[in-house]
Amino acid sequence: MGRGLNISFAHRQNRSLLLRLILQHPKISRAKLAEMTQLTPASVSNITGILIKERYVHEIGALDEIRSAGRRSIGLEISNGNHFTIAVHMQRQHASIGIGNLDGSVTHQSHIAIPDHPNPQDVARDIANVIKTKMRNVPGEQVLGVGVGTSGIVDTEAGMIYAALAYEWQQVPWASLLASTTGLPVVVDNNARAMALGEMLFGGMAKSEWLAFLFAGQGIGLGVLADGKMFSGGHGIGGELGHLTINWKGESCWCGNVGCLETYLNQSRIESILGVGRGETINTSLKNLYQRGAYYDVVDLVATALVGIVNIFNPRIIVLGGWLADAWAQIETDVRNTIKSRTRFWNDPPVAIRPSILGEEVGLQGANAVALGRWIYGLGPRSYDDQLEESPVNP
């Protein structure tokens, strides 16, 4: 169903677009913004003037770029220190929590343990206690809300964790539960989608609006951005590459399917294939087994996942996280050759593949991106009207 654009809606879109461009192109001038967006110079000046007044953006001085009047242009940058998020990255055994800034960085980080078979109310209480402590460092009115990246199958629009094997949770209304314990708006997404959003927003010169983020840990996660918009499916749980059947006579998966990619590519299974011993890592084992049978088994499994991504989503760049990021340098050449032979008709130009630029920070920065995408940069999965109703600050 189509949707009309009223003036206020279009204005909010323009604000978020300009903020996103200023974030991704530091020191950009108003003239360049007008050129990139095809907005009039007067509209750009009006919106950026408001953003400066509201302390989302600041001027950084004259650039070499010359304006038509012969004067140097003034550059613009995102302004940290005035608006914040709370970023929460939830993994199998622990949660990381920090204060998120508009440029993507996350400070004042701390970690709490998540026990086996955790009770959702207990975890929400523990995270809320940490958040309340952290908010002593920033005025409450400057906190936009809480962004959460978590393990499991997540419907972002509903704020629901449908299933999380790591916690043995099903049908947990996580956003509303955490909101009720913190008193803050909460938006939640799957970790891989959060990481994909973080890479697109904060990934430097290598960022792309056609991006897939593949995370390999104890589970397999995939986040896909198509033309700058998160692919989430009709019910918010799209992109579950880990539950794509690669062996229809294979092992049963916890999801109810058989032969799932996740069953064969998870970290424990790869360690078993390679015979990773005490004190070893997947990467060191791959080096020791270079071009032997087990090595090529891993290459084929990784290539199968990447070929699936290329065929289904056709991204310009695939970003790797988890053990794949650590091992990529060791297997890159052979995986690329395998992908090339198995995608003969649509590999020119070949898809770029690289480990995450954000490194170990990708989880928390992804959680920050979930919040900023919803409330600042206009990349949330829901409409702007819905987003603005939930946030104490109208971007």
What layout of secondary structure does this protein have?
Layout (H helix, E strand, L loop, with lengths): L6 H18 L3 E2 H8 L3 H13 L3 E10 L5 E7 L5 E7 L3 E7 L5 E8 L6 H15 L8 E8 L2 E3 L4 E5 L4 E4 L1 H9 L3 E5 H12 L8 E6 L3 E7 L2 E2 L30 H5 L1 H8 L7 H7 L4 H21 L3 E6 H20 L9 E4 L6 H14 L8 H7 L5
Parallel strand pairs: 4-7, 7-11, 12-15, 15-16
Antiparallel strand pairs: 1-3, 2-3, 4-5, 5-6, 8-9, 9-10, 12-13, 13-14
Overview of this protein structure:
The protein has helices at residues 7-24, 30-37, 41-53, 120-134, 174-182, 191-202, 261-265, 267-274, 282-288, 293-313, 323-342, 362-375, 384-390, and strands spanning 28-29, 57-66, 72-78, 84-90, 94-100, 106-113, 143-150, 153-155, 160-164, 169-172, 186-190, 211-216, 220-226, 229-230, 317-322, 352-355. α2 (30-37) crosses α3 (41-53). Strands 6-5-4-7-11 form a 5-stranded mixed beta sheet, sandwiched between helices. It has a 5-stranded mixed beta sheet with strand order 14-13-12-15-16, with helices on both faces. It has a 3-stranded antiparallel beta sheet with strand order 1-3-2. The protein is α/β, with parallel strands linked by helices. The longest helix is centred in the last third of the chain and has 21 residues, at 293-313. The chain has 3 domains: 7-78, Arc Repressor Mutant, subunit A (Orthogonal Bundle), CATH 1.10.10.10; 84-194 and 363-390, Nucleotidyltransferase, domain 5 (2-Layer Sandwich), CATH 3.30.420; 204-357, ATPase, nucleotide binding domain (Nucleotidyltransferase, domain 5), CATH 3.30.420. β4 (84-90) and β5 (94-100) form a beta hairpin. It is built from 13 helices and 16 strands. The chain is globular. 40% of the residues lie in helices and 23% in strands.
